[in-house]
Amino acid sequence: MGGAKHFTLRLLLIAAVLGVWETLVRISGVPEYILPPPSSIFRAMYVGIMSNVYPQHFMVTLTETLLGFMVGTALAFMLGTLVALSRRVEYFLYPFIVMFQSMPKVALAPLIVVWFGLGLTSKVINAALVAFFPLMVNTIAGLRSAEEDRINLMRSLAASRTQIFFMLQLPNALPYIFAGLEIAMIFALIGAIVAEFVGAERGLGMLIQSMNFNMDVAGQFSILLILSMLGLILNGMVAYARKRLVFWEVRNTGEETANSSQKGGSI
Amino acid sequence: MNALDRAASPSRAASTDVIAVDHLSLTYGKKDTGVLALSDISFSIANGEFISIVGPSGCGKSTLLKILAGLLPPSEGVATLNGTPITGARRDIGVVFQTPVLFPWRTVLQNVLLPADVQKLDKEKMHKRAMDLVRLVGLEGFENRYPRELSGGMQQRVGIIRALIHDPAILLMDEPFGALDAMTRETMNVELQRIWMESGKTILFITHSTSEAVYLADRVIVMTARPGKIGDVFDVDLPRPRPLEVMNTEAFGAYVKRIRVALNADGGLD
Ligand SMILES: Nc1ncnc2c1ncn2[C@@H]1O[C@H](COP(=O)(O)OP(=O)(O)OP(=O)(O)O)[C@@H](O)[C@H]1O
Ligand SMILES: [Mg+2]
Fold it and tell me: Taking a C-beta distance cutoff of 8 angstroms, is the pair B176, B157 a contact?
């Protein structure tokens, strides 16, 4: 797909949907606090951005998400590597991993806010916690996925364990790791927003909640729009890095790695 | 101490054995319930000798090669290299596997240089050598391509020259030309003979093709199936270097026929 013609069609379709939405809301007389028309949503967006309210809260949520992503994925990569390389570590950590993996991590958000307060720390920790598992699981699966023939080749050259790791296992795991990172990025954003819902002084999640109290539904929609664009951009950044670093991967193997990444468990 | 020594040629007996395999057995899995892949194998390879092994599919040829490469410990018996038991991989052995086993994140040249990287050999010298090898197998112009841009036969050629880059004294080759077309295969056979004659390497060459075995080898070992055992051993007394035309001679045909008969008697033929 693609091409200028298709792109125009896409834009027209979006415009049509918005047009129908606007008309229906106006003629049916649904109140604004139930379903605002698109024009109100865009007005709320414009005002929010121009008054510098949205940009400020946006930066807070972005910071929380990125910090949480970095902390969570760094720990996940280290622990995943340890588990993949050492049967003993795996043996002792396995019960914890299984327990945490099936637990909805966001359910910990209230506790984390109680422990770490209303500020940045609790949001970063929550985002890190949620981002952790998809990457750890994929790191383990990826490092273990090296074909026996390839391991045999390295061994036949009398390669050391370190050489086998860096020259074979790690590059071999990169498609899995990036599939995990893409999910972790979105999960980190979810983790930050949920923690803001629970208790925060700033951030887009906090803004949504205070608008909810004021029945400012148009405002909430405008922030949802911002959040979905933020998710798109963050995901796009990881996808871009993946394309550059995992250049050898033919795209149709993505299905296989995407499947493996679903083992990341619940948010 | 059996058919092998009887089959030994005088020239071979004079030189020293590089590889000696003594009552070797291998069972995959548990001793009682597992698959007996090799049973009581004994033979030896002299320094500089070219040995071909032929045998039906599944008779344990790849298994034997893995043991000699130090990748698989035998269940019983020993294999020695220059008198010391093979317990792990050795740097003076080069292995060509049945499939190319290339790393998709490395270019052709980088794949060829893998053994040099692992063994931390002189970069500049190895680069030059790698380019010579790339030219040798007709892959010039492809050195900076990635494996997925290559045909199956081209990939296998990369796998072969990778085993040569660090100039090992011993080459273990597992059906290296099986995936090549007939023309390339003949060219590769001529090249391999030339490399062997010039370098004095010891080569163990596994193949499904009886004529390839006869063309290349000093000795052809026939293996039998289930469990893998050594059947007949044939000395090939054809003058070197052997031109491809040797395949049309009566003497060559006679060798091929005798080996085919031996293979058939063991109930296997491809
Ligand atoms: N990892 C393994 N685990 C269990 N059994 C195995 C394993 N590898 C090989 N075998 C069995 O051992 C026997 C010998 O296998 P091997 O690969 O050595 O045969 P081969 O002579 O190389 O066959 P081919 O000519 O088809 O390559 C076969 O019966 C096979 O099923
Ligand atoms: Mg085999």
Answer: no
DSSP state of B16: P
d(CA B194, CA B57): 28
What is the spatial distance between Cα B133 and Cα B112, in angstroms, rounded to a whole number?
Answer: 9
ipTM of the complex: 0.86
Which pairing describes strands B170-174 and B93-96: parallel, antiparallel, or unpaired?
A: parallel
Tally of CA atoms within 13 A in the half-sphere of A245 that contains its CB: 17
Kindly provide the residue ranges of all beta strands, DSSP E only, lying in B141-218, ordered along the sequence: 170-174, 202-207
For residue B58, the CA-to-ligand 1 centroid distance in Å is: 5
Give the span between the Cα atoms of B155 and B137, in whole angstroms: 11
Helices assigned H by DSSP within B15-169: 61-68, 108-112, 114-118, 123-136, 152-162
The vertex-B151 CA angle with B147 and B157, nearest 5°, equals 75
A13-54 pLDDT per residue, tens? 999 999 999 999 999 988 988 999 999 999 999 999 999 999
The single-letter DSSP state of residue B87 is -
Q: Could you give phi then psi for residue B241, rounded to 5 degrees?
A: -70, 145
Residue range B139-151: average pLDDT? 94
For ligand 1, atom 2, the nearest C-alpha belongs to: B28
Residues of chain A with pLDDT > 70, as a percent, come to 93
Residue with tokens 């996925």: A145
User: Tokens 């929010």 correspond to what residue?
Assistant: A48
Arithmetic mean of pLDDT over chain B? 88
Give the number of whichever ligand sits closest to the CA of residue B225.
1
Q: How far apart are CA A179 and CA A262, in angstroms?
A: 10
pLDDT digits (tens, 9 = 90+) for B229-241: 898 999 999 998 9
> If 0-12 CB within 10 Å is exposed, 13-18 middle and 19+ buried, where does residue B124 land?
exposed
List the structure tokens of A141. Answer: 């699966």
Q: Which two tokens stand for residue B129?
A: 């050598």
- Whether the CB-CB separation of A218 and A39 falls below 8 Å is answered with no
Chain B CA closest to residue A170: B105
Query: Where in chain A are the domains?
Result: 1-30, 32-264
A162 inside 8 A of chain B by CB = no
User: Whole-angstrom distance between the N-terminal and C-terminal Cα of chain B?
Assistant: 30
Sequence-distant (≥ 6) Cβ neighbours of residue B46 within 8 angstroms: B12, B13, B15, B16, B17, B18, B202
Query: Roughly how many angstroms between the first and final C-alpha of chain A, as a whole number?
Result: 33
- Fold topology of A32-264: MetI-like fold (1.10.3720)
Helical H runs in B24-148? 61-68, 108-112, 114-118, 123-136
Ligand number, closest to the Cα atom of B35: 1
pLDDT, tens digit, 9 for 90 and up, residues B154-205: 998 999 999 999 999 999 999 999 878 888 889 889 989 988 998 889 999 9
Closest CA to A265 of A82, A125, A141, A81: A141
Nearest to A163 among B104, B105, B118 (CB): B118
Give the amino acid at A85.
L
